[in-house]
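User: Reviewer 2 asked us to show a designed sequence for the structure in our supplementary figure. I'm pasting the structure tokens here. Could you produce the per-position amino acids so we can include them in the response letter?
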């Protein structure tokens, strides 16, 4: 076989798979030897944007990736430290002619990429970097005037209509030579974190594929009907797999298309709505790409400088699921117990945080990032800004969800609530649909609501209105 290069490094980042991996496949075709590399970051104990749940999942994914690479004559090389330093060392050790990697959607990752490209140029090493985190890169989905969209619906129409790439074929061999040393695969101890045994989800590419195919075969047809009911296992549960690149969007899309061909018209509808959710993910990547300032400030300029309250003891009540609002507490406890929270409940707890407690969405955003296994900067920021009423295609500020009526609508029998708030296991579900009318806690050891939703709703309306008027 004729190769263009003797030696190439594949720098793994958030694409921890070997299947349908376009850039790794190119590396395998262009290089006589490919060195797959993962660099572990050096932070310890605490990180504003991640925590034990996600890192535990990452450890499992790396172990699985190492095993998978062995099946294609590859060997995962782990290095600890700063990306730039470790890449420089690896380039020298392997005498690499070329460095391959998938472009990162996050501003921090992009900054590192910039420095890496400069370094490679100085060292005379070629760089092959491509977008592959989503089906369409942000610059593929633009308005007729070649502008980025600011609103989801027209974005999604354009996204749905665009032709999609087919999966790439299996990689046969990476031919990684044995002489380059690797640090051990990480455990949580590397970051000084303790496991909280949160997730029951298995990491790694094979488990992710099984999760997705099982969901597609058994649930996605009914997605439209059931996705908003948190007590049901009605969604696909693949967000952490997409976050870590265990699944490729090309393969997912191809499987969805085949399922669609065989589906009844009702199921076709469910599949269509599911596809639109995947488009939300890509919409938020596009927003972060074109408007990276959303990480610091409100997407909608009119809401910058809103006077949020200083956090007090109510913040801890929210974090620990002790607010006295059963649906909010169930969601926050599900998050602590599993590193996951149902989408409907994410909206409820985030709106409660910003509209009932009047706290700055950035604080809630960071708490989610620390605990979610699927913590994804773009979607998390998008979801928080949507809920706060400050984001792209946001719920307008005057549309404030009432946690009591949301419960009556989406968890009428309190099945989800009772699962996560054991103190309420024997309480009649109608008690979860309104604040206690007699002013007494609905169960022993369960707190009274920490605020009055109706009063706080009015306060939010007044705060937003005043701010709006001041902008004129
Ligand atoms: C406040 C808030 C914070 C959020 N933070 C995150 C986050 O950190 N990471 C994350 O992946 N999602 C986040 N979401 C979106 C959504 O809650 C999760 O993607 C979803 O709950 C994951 O479960 P699932 O895989 O079963 O989703 P499904 O319902 O099966 O949807 C399939 C996939 O579509 C994508 N998707 C679905 N809904 C959304 C959405 N509203 N926005 C963006 N993508 C979506 C996800 O990739 C998801 O895996 C957040 C939503 C809110 C309201």
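Assistant: Here is a per-position design you can include in the supplement:
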């Amino acid at each position: 076989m004729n190769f263009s290069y003797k030696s190439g490094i594949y720098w793994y980042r958030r694409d921890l798979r070997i299947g349908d991996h376009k850039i790794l496949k190119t590396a395998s075709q262009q290089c006589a030897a490919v060195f797959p590399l993962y660099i572990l970051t050096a932070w310890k104990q605490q990180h504003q944007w991640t925590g034990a749940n996600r890192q535990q999942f990452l450890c499992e994914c790396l172990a699985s990736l190492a095993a998978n690479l062995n099946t294609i004559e590859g060997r995962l090389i782990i290095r600890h430290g700063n990306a730039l330093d470790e890449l420089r060392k690896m380039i020298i050790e392997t005498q690499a002619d070329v460095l391959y990697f998938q472009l990162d959607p996050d501003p921090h990752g992009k900054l590192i990429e910039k420095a890496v490209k400069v370094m490679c140029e100085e060292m005379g090493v070629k760089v092959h970097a491509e977008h592959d985190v989503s089906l369409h890169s942000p610059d593929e989905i633009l308005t007729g005037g070649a502008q980025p969209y600011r609103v989801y619906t027209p974005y999604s129409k354009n996204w749905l209509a665009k032709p999609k790439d087919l999966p790439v074929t299996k990689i046969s061999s990476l031919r990684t030579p044995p002489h380059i040393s690797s640090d051990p695969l990480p455990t949580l101890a590397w970051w000084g974190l303790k496991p909280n045994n949160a997730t029951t989800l298995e990491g790694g590419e094979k488990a992710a594929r099984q999760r997705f195919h099982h969901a597609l075969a058994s649930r996605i047809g009914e997605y439209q009907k059931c996705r908003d009911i948190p007590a049901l296992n009605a969604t696909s549960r693949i967000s952490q797999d997409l976050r870590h690149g265990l699944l490729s969007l090309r393969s997912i899309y191809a499987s969805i298309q085949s399922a669609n061909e065989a589906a009844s018209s009702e199921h076709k509808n469910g599949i269509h709505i599911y596809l639109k959710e995947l488009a939300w993910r890509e919409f938020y990547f596009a927003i972060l790409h074109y408007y990276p300032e959303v990480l610091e400030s409100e997407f909608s300029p009119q809401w910058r400088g809103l006077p949020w309250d200083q956090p007090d003891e109510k913040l801890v009540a929210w974090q620990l699921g002790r607010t006295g609002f059963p649906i909010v507490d169930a969601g926050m406890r599900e998050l602590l117990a599993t590193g996951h929270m149902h989408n409907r409940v994410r909206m409820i707890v985030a709106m409660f945080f910003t509209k009932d407690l009047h706290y700055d969405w950035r604080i809630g955003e960071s708490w989610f990032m620390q605990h979610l296994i699927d913590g994804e900067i773009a979607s998390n920021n998008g979801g928080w800004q949507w809920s706060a009423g400050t984001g792209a295609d946001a719920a307008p500020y005057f549309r404030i969800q009432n946690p009591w009526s949301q419960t009556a609508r989406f968890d009428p029998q309190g099945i989800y609530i009772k699962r996560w708030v054991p103190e309420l296991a024997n309480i009649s579900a109608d008690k979860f649909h309104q604040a206690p009318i007699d002013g007494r806690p609905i169960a022993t050891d369960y707190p009274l609501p920490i605020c009055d939703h109706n009063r706080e709703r009015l306060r939010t309306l007044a705060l937003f209105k005043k701010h709006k008027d001041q902008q004129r």
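For the response letter, you might also mention the following. The longest strand covers residues 31-40. Residues 5-132 form a domain with the Rossmann fold fold (CATH 3.40.50.620).
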